[in-house]
Amino acid sequence: MLVDTHCHIHEADYPLDVNETLARARAAGVHKMICVGTNIRSSHEAIAFSTQHSETYAAIGVHPHDTTTGWNEIERLADVTVLHTKSEDSSRLVAIGEIGLDYFYTHSPRAVQIEALESQLDVAVRHGLPVIFHVREAFDDFWPLLDNFKDIRGVLHSFTDTDVNLERALQRGLYVGVNGISTFTKDAVQRGMFAAIPLERLLLETDAPFLTPVPFRGKVNEPALVEHVARHQALTYGISLEEIAAATTANADALFAL
Fold first, then answer.
1. Which listed site, 1, 95, 121, 238, has its alpha carbon 20 to 30 Å from 61?
2. The domain at 2-256 falls in which architecture?
3. Contacts of 5 (CB under 8 A, 6+ apart)
């Protein structure tokens, strides 16, 4: 049994048939999936989608690329959703994300990204929700900002950075999300970093429809293919697929209370 802790199959423009996608996921042993918002629209879609499909859960947030507009609405969306504590909606909301800092591109000014991240972290703290982080070439600003929020739990989504930043993440109790990049990277430093992630801190993800793993490069990614990320990481660790599945499922359940 596997968990895809990060996908975007809920979005209106996802290019595969949703029912067939979910059926293939079940057949591959993927029994839980977290649908992750990147803006207000997709965050609403994630909540709606998760109420319609029992194997899916929702995360809501505004990606750093989109922080020039709308991020202040996440607080209201979280409040409205969590308010109905006995409803199906509230049980499906499991995280704030994906949020963070991205200095590789300049879609949003750095100051705006920082303001949006701090605001959304306040929402996570207030509701006791873990956070799905997107951080790219911005760790120098990210770590001191994160350290201002002592109660934050979360995962570094699609982590491909250095051993140094891996160690800093582990020191702060963060989990590390690994996806199809691990199966096709030719970067020896990255491969070494993937091998160094402690099993008890590993989460598996697809980021579907993006980052399709080997041997399906060139095709649309989907949650069923998280099995191939798991198999590759099992080979990296020298353990069985069953051990990877059990550990990463337990990690996902512990962080997101699935």
1. 1
2. Alpha-Beta Barrel (3.20)
3. 34, 132, 155, 177, 203, 204, 205, 252, 256
